[in-house]
Automatic annotation (TrEMBL):
One of its GO terms (molecular function) is acyltransferase activity. This is Phosphate propanoyltransferase. It comes from Paenibacillus shunpengii. Coiled coil: none annotated. The lineage of its organism: Bacteria, Bacillati, Bacillota, Bacilli, Bacillales. Pathway: Polyol metabolism; 1,2-propanediol degradation. InterPro entries: PTAC. Keywords: Acyltransferase, Metal-binding, Transferase, Zinc.
Amino acid sequence: MSKTVPVGVSARHIHLTQEHIEVLFGAGYQLTEFKPLSQPGQFAANETVAVIGTKGQFDKVRILGPARPASQLEISRTDSFAIGIKAPVRESGSIDGTPGVTLKGPAGEVTLEEGVIVAARHIHFHTSDAEKWNIKDKEMLKVRLGGERGLVLENVIARVSDSFALDMHIDTDEANAAGAKTGDVAEIIE
């Protein structure tokens, strides 16, 4: 039985707390949906912020909603060189000891003390998909990524939850290396 999963290429983006949303956009501000994402209840917002590093900045970084318990900027390794921030590879939400960054919105600025990461490649599994393929939460997988310059990715983290939909998330550096794009299909080989 082939274990194929859809691929989602994740460009730089930011998750914000409601407190930070209000500092950046104004008291009581609520994010507005631009388009839904692959994971149920999550969306790309119409709103963007400027991200200012020590060496450069990105003017329009998309916010993903809804609001989160902690603010977190996810960038590629190439992005980290461009703005001068040495972001470690981490699982989403694992931001202790990571570098910070300054954010600028239409109503104000926020300086994050930590929260900048290069997101570890991962696959979201609904519990039923994981059970069908005997995959455990946090298991490290090996995945063949097709594309013009196909390659095999190791250390792909399995993330299993009843609230997830099956989808593999890689960043733009990984996608560019393989010539892959959102909507392609990858195969779990180990």
